[in-house]
Amino acid sequence: MTRDDGLDVAGLQRRLTEFAAARGWEPYHTPKNLAVALSVEASELVEIFQWLTPEQSARVMDGEESAHRVRDEVADVLAYLLQFCEVLGVDVLRALSDKIDRNEIRFPVK
């Protein structure tokens, strides 16, 4: 997929790495800490939907305030996932593609 805005996974990972380095945060960006932070941010995303009905959850992006909260939490989850992958040397796109391949075998179309 080619994007017109120039955004790509490697570029975002570089920006996150540079952001953390400029603030001296590298010692805290261990796999354990990043996995915990990822879990916390995913939980904050879940919290937005916690008491919504299925119908309300389907319309969460209709309101600017709730849409903003969702986008922010999605960004936090992705940021920590990309940092986690960078620290461990995981190619996130390859990992996803490989997982889809395995799932296509595990769950064939009937």
**Average pLDDT rating:** 96
Give the DSSP E fraction (strand runs of 2 or more residues): under 5%
Major sheet: none
Number of helical regions? 5
First-to-last CA distance: 29 Å
Which structural class should the secondary elements be placed in?
Answer: mainly alpha
Compute the CA-based radius of gyration.
Answer: 17 Å
Q: Helix-strand pattern, N to C?
A: HHHHH
Global shape: globular
* Portion in helices: over 70%
Contiguous runs where pLDDT drops below 50 for at least 5 residues: none
Number of strands: 0
Name its key features.
110 residues, mainly alpha, 5 helices, 0% strand, globular
Can I get a quick summary?
Helices cover 71% and strands 0% of the residues. By secondary structure, the chain is mostly helical. The longest helix is centred in the last third of the chain and has 25 residues, at 64-88.
